[in-house]
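fwd from M.: "can u put these together and see what the complex looks like"

so here's what she sent:
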Amino acid sequence: MHERGMLIVLSGPSGVGKGTVRQAMLQDDFRDFQYSVSMTTRKPRPGEKDGIDYYFRTKEQFEQEIADGQMLEYAKYVDNYYGTPLKYVNQTLDAGRDVLLEIEVKGAMQVRAKCPDGVFIFLTPPDLVALKHRLVGRGTDDIATINKRIQQAAQEIKMMENYDYAVVNDEVPLAVKRIERIIESEHLRVPRVIDKYRNMVN
Amino acid sequence: MHERGMLIVLSGPSGVGKGTVRQAMLQDDFRDFQYSVSMTTRKPRPGEKDGIDYYFRTKEQFEQEIADGQMLEYAKYVDNYYGTPLKYVNQTLDAGRDVLLEIEVKGAMQVRAKCPDGVFIFLTPPDLVALKHRLVGRGTDDIATINKRIQQAAQEIKMMENYDYAVVNDEVPLAVKRIERIIESEHLRVPRVIDKYRNMVN
C-alpha cells in the first residue's frame, strides 16, 4: 500500500505567466510530479506535438468527452475548448505520484469542487501595473483588449480566496522555488500522513 | 501597516528531540523568527542563564502569573511548572515578527485553543523503536520508566491529529529544513495574505 499522489493545481489570471512557470518546473531538478497534458480543440502551433503540448481533438471529439463525463475540468476560450482529461490524472494519483495541472481560474474552481484535497496555488502578478506591462509587452493585443484583460484579472484576483496559496510571479525561478516548497510542505500535512502514523503505533 | 507575525508551535512526544531541533533552528542561517523563552520553577542547571535558557521563577511567582492570566500555556511536570509568558509572544507578533515556541503536547493544545491561526508542527520519531533506543541511550531511566514513556508517546502520537504538520526527526538537519519550508510555505497561504492582495487590486 502506497499513499495516493497529491493533485497540484497551478492557476492564476490571464497573462500572469502560468505557462512559463509550469515549463520551468518541468525543467527543474526537483520535478517529483507528472504534468497532466491538457486537451484542446485549437489548432497546433508550429512545433507543438499531440500528446506532449496538448491532446489535439476536434470540437465533436471534445464534446463527446464532456458528454461521457471524461473531463476533470474544461472551459471555452475564444471558440476553443481547453480541458483536463480525467483518466490520466486518476491513474497517476492512484500510482502514488503527484500530478500538476496548469489551468485557467474557471477550470481550477471545477477541480476544487471535485477534488477538495488538492493543493490550489494561485499565481499572481506583483501588482496590476506589472500585469499591464506584460500584456503590452506581448504586442499582440490592442488597448481595449488589454484594459478588458486587466479588469478581468482584478476579478480573478478576488477569486484568490478560493485557493490555498498565493505565489507572486515576480521572478520565475523564485516562483518555482516557492511552489516546490509548498509541494514539499503539503506532503507533511497531518491529514495526508496521519494514517501512516496510526499504523506505526499499532 | 505591516502584517502580524506568525506563531509557530513545535511540539511532540517526550524524548523525540524537540530541544535539539529547536537549538539547531536557532543556529541556522534561516532563523527568521524569535524564539520565545519559557518560564519554569525548576532550578537552573550549570551554565543555564535566566532570560536565555528559561525565565527562572519561584513556584509562588509562577502561580501569580497564572492567576493574572499572563501565561499563554503552562503545565506541571515532576512538581515543576513550565510555561510560555503571553506578553513577549504578543509583543513580537504585533511587531510583525514570527515567534517559535517549543513546548510539550499539553501546552500546545492550550495554545491551539487560544491561537487557532498558529502553525502547529508535531515532531515525531521515525518509529517507536527509535524512540525506545533514544530513551535507553539517555541512560537516566529504568525499564519501567522507559516502557511508561513509550506508552505515553503512543498516546501523544494519537494527538498528532490536532496538529497541522508532522515532521519526522530522523536527522536533525533534515527536520530543521522541513520545518523551515513549512514556515516559508505558510507565509504564502491565502488566509494570511488575502488582505494584502485585496488592497493591491483596489
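replying to her w this: The radius of gyration of chain B is 18 Å.
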